[in-house]
Amino acid sequence: MMRIGELATRTGVSVRALRYYEEQNLLASQRSPSGQRQYPDSSADRVQLIQQLYAAGLPSKAIADLLPCVVNGEATPELLDRLSAERDRIDSRIGDLVDARDRLSTVIAAATANWRTGQRCPIQ
Predict the structure, then answer these.
(1) What is the topology classification, in CATH, of domain 1-74?
(2) Which among 49, 52, 39 has a CA at the least distance from the CA of 7?
(3) Maximum CA pair distance of the chain?
(4) What sign results for the dihedral spanned by CA atoms 14, 16, 18, 24?
(5) pLDDT of 76
(6) Which residue from 21, 64, 107, 108 puts its CA 20 to 30 A from 75's CA?
(7) HSE-up of residue 59 (Cα within 13 Å, Cβ side)
């Protein structure tokens, strides 16, 4: 078992965020006799999973719905459809980001070539 500060340090997530995860039923703790939150060692992996799902753009309600499936391996056909839709949305987002990066690379290459020849971009 570890206290909230140790979990925060281990995961790089703020104490405030950990409390929020508890409020959203994403994370559970037990209370010590003195009232301090105590988390099982497995909580560090769970927090990292929560962070990844947030980074993927899922709201806390969706994460709360998905966590039992991810942790227990239980899934309904509806949940599998939802997971597939989220994966497709992430794939689309990745494609958009790759396109944006490629466009920036093209602009950088053109600007670098112009700079070497003494031409300046009209936008300063």
Answers:
(1) Multidrug-efflux Transporter Regulator; Chain: A; Domain 2 (1.10.1660)
(2) 39
(3) 73
(4) negative
(5) 76
(6) 21
(7) 1
